[in-house]
Design the sequence.
């Protein structure tokens, strides 16, 4: 479904990686590994369509994402280093705004269920700024549970999470994969998810 | 389109939660344009003459105050990335941001202007023309400002650069906006100036969102 052919990424004067090929099909996931500065985040941003590769092409269902970006974006969920959370808004408002950005309808009950699942019961009406760093990550992750996207591109999804939240997230990813989803993740830890191919940068 | 409304709603909601931003710009406008009558003295003829220019310069500077924050917060917390990969084209979302900026920083100026105009001894007709000119002119300021805000995104010391970049582009709005009120006072009729202002607004509405979108994409690379 998602495939990249001969990707080359150049940042400034440096060539981070060259002639990289990868492919993910329904139910599969990729683990992008590499040292700090190896270009993991750059690769994920290329896959999300946020920057353009110096060479090569990324295809979604056989079509280049440059030309068919609208169907691709509807199926894509990207998490960068920043949470895209608004500190002055509540967790619930953040979720419904994110859903509107994705062009999806989000029922309030579904949003609440996702927040409860991530242990945020009783905190859904608090402004995000009063939550702890881990709780903010949980609000972000609750978005994963509300969004019907086929492809998840997650940059370091396990940082700042406690043991319970790591379990929750890996269950969520496994459910997603079992339902025919795809995922591309970066992480320095060994992943608590079976299967998965490693892309070493 | 839904995403565009969502942006407008969210930005307005955030302003409601943190009112200081909108009030700062408004009070700046009030104070700057009140300093002139206080400094120059109570001479109705002179005040009437400088009123259009002073009020318009005040409005320009007040708009500049909030301009840098138009995309900066979204850039810092990653919302802008999510906007760029949204299925809704980014240019619609930029239109939403500009609309929200105008509602927050332009519309209050339009509503406040007649009150300030009284300090300059403007009559009812002139106040009406002033409001109409600002109604056409302030969205123009937000649109042009969006290009500047997008271009200086992530630049250190961007605030000063933004003023240098945007203020010269505000000159036509200033000339036709202040000119409309002046020519009304001198009995020539404001029609010509207002039409030109409207023409500028239409042109900016067609081109500025695209230019700002292109600049945002560069900032995100």
Sequence:
């Amino acid at each position: 479904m998602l495939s990249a052919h001969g990707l080359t990424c150049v940042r400034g004067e440096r060539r981070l990686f060259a002639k990289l090929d990868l492919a993910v099909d329904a139910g599969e996931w990729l683990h992008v590994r590499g040292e700090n500065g190896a270009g993991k985040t750059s690769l994920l941003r290329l896959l999300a369509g946020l920057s353009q590769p110096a060479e090569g092409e990324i295809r979604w269902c056989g079509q280049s994402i440059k030309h068919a970006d609208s169907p691709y974006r509807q199926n894509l969920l990207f998490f960068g280093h920043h949470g895209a959370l608004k500190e002055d808004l509540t967790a619930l408002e953040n979720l419904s705004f994110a859903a509107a950005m994705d062009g999806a309808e989000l029922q309030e009950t579904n949003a609440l269920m996702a927040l409860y699942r991530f242990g945020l019961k009783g905190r859904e009406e608090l402004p995000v700024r009063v939550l702890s760093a881990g709780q903010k990550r949980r609000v972000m992750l609750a978005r994963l549970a509300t969004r019907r996207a086929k492809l998840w591109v997650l940059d370091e999804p396990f940082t700042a999470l406690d043991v319970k939240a790591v379990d929750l997230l890996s269950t969520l990813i496994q459910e997603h994969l079992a339902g025919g989803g795809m995922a591309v993740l970066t992480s320095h830890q060994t992943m608590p998810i079976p299967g998965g191919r490693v892309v070493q940068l | 389109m839904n995403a565009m409304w969502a942006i407008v709603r969210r930005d307005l909601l955030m302003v409601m939660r943190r009112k200081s931003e909108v009030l700062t710009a408004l009070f700046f406008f009030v104070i700057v344009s009140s300093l002139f009558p206080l400094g120059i003295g109570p001479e109705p003829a002179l005040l009437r003459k400088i009123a259009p220019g002073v009020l318009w310069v005040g409005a320009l500077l007040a708009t500049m105050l909030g301009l840098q924050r138009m995309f900066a917060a979204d850039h810092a917390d990653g919302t802008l990335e999510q906007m760029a990969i949204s299925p809704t084209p980014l240019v619609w979302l930029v239109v939403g941001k500009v609309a929200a900026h105008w509602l927050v920083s332009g519309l209050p100026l339009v509503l406040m202007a007649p009150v300030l105009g009284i300090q300059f001894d403007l009559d009812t007709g002139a106040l009406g023309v002033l409001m109409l000119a600002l109604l056409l002119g302030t969205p123009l300021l937000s649109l042009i400002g969006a290009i500047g805000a997008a271009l200086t995104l992530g630049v250190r010391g961007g605030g000063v650069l933004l003023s240098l970049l945007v203020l010269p582009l505000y000159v036509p709005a200033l000339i036709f906006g202040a000119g409309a009120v002046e020519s009304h006072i001198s009995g020539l009729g404001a029609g010509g100036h207002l039409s030109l202002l409207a023409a500028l607004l239409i042109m900016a509405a067609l081109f500025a969102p695209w230019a700002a979108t292109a600049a945002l994409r560069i900032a995100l690379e």
In short: The interface with chain A takes residues 2-3, 5-6, 10, 13-14, 17-18, 76-79, 81-88, 93, 220-221 of chain B (CB under 8 Å). Chain B has a mean pLDDT of 91. Residues 2-220 of chain B form one domain. The radius of gyration of chain B is 18 Å.
